[in-house]
Specification:
The protein is an alpha/beta fold. The protein has two domains: about 120 residues, Aspartate Aminotransferase, domain 1 (Alpha-Beta Complex), CATH 3.90.1150.10; about 240 residues, 3-Layer(aba) Sandwich (Aspartate Aminotransferase, domain 2). Helix content is about 35%, strand content about 20%. The chain is built from eleven helices and 15 strands. The protein has a seven-stranded mixed beta sheet with strand order 4-10-9-8-7-5-6, with helices on both faces. A hairpin with a 2-residue loop joins β11 and β12. α3 runs parallel beside α8, α6 runs parallel beside α7 and α9 runs parallel beside α11. The radius of gyration is 21 Å and the shape is globular. The relative contact order is 0.16.
Amino acid sequence: MELFDVYPLFDITIDKGQGCHVWDDKGQEYLDLYGGHAVISVGHSHPHYVEAITRQVNKLGFYSNSVQNPLQRELAHRLGKVCGYDDYQLFLINSGAEANENALKLSSFYNGRTRVLSLEKAFHGRTSLAVEVTNNPKIISPINDNGHVTYLPINDLQPWKAEIEKGDVCAVIIECIQGVGGIRLVTKEFLQGLRELCDQYDTVLICDEIQCGYGRSGKFFAHQHLGVKPDIITVAKGICNGFPMGGVLISPKFKPVYGQLGTTFGGNHLGCAGALAVLDVIEQEKLVENAAKVGTYLIDTLTAEMKAGNLPHVVDVRGQGLMIGIELDIPYKEPRTRLIKEQHCFTGCSGTNVIRLLPPLCLSMDEAKDFVERFKTVLNAQ
């Protein structure tokens, strides 16, 4: 049997990692400014995380959700305090797409509606409903294209108002910083306007914090920059530093019903132990604050270098914390490939001409400065 070939791959085999660095099977070291799609939050192979995972798997890796699992309750209590949502409820699953599936399902149970509003260029996952609210027709198969979704422009409230006022919208789902969509930021006025409209028409406001959450923006959640409380918040990626896990944070206005949601693997003992260790490190090493500080340095420095003419082809730098988009006036493919092959530095990409930076939240100021120099070298050699 061969693998189902759906991923274009670099000819690199990553063998180990530490902090913000990885090494391939030939011993070459790379600076990691991508963190495996924003998954690595506390750094590769953090000793506290490794110890917690090891200790738990030596004791018990998994048992079903038909029995008590005190680790789930501990995680819910800890997460509620750290993120400021003590009064919300937590449902644990395995991935970001699954988190969004459950958020949309819960919304429809709540108000009985089936229509969803989503942003143009949105990305919310690849499963049934999650892919339907993703604005990419290439990955929406005919069986997923069920007419539930209307895509609307970012930061233009009027068309959203016109749709919500029809009274049949089940949910609005928003990435406050779009990831795949090119690091585009939602404004405070826009999100606050949506909140008011959702309240008025009993529509559920979902904030997808799968990529922009868990400290990446310089606050625990990106929407916390905007002064709004969503009804449902979805998380994954950084929650467990690489172990598959996701979660749905649910407002008290939703009342749980036995059998309404369910999962086999979600909230398993091993994942909960890892997620608790991630929260330990985030708090003890002040990684949210670090993301804000180092991210501000990167955005300010890259912007200054662009304006000074030291970064040819860069036309915009945008983002928040350690979620940064560098827009080029050329396709990203060549500079990104040269960053990897010549400067041994991993970055992400978006669309055709945006380089995305999503490093571990422990990225140091020296590592940020190192990246800027490597990036300047690549662009000035174009």
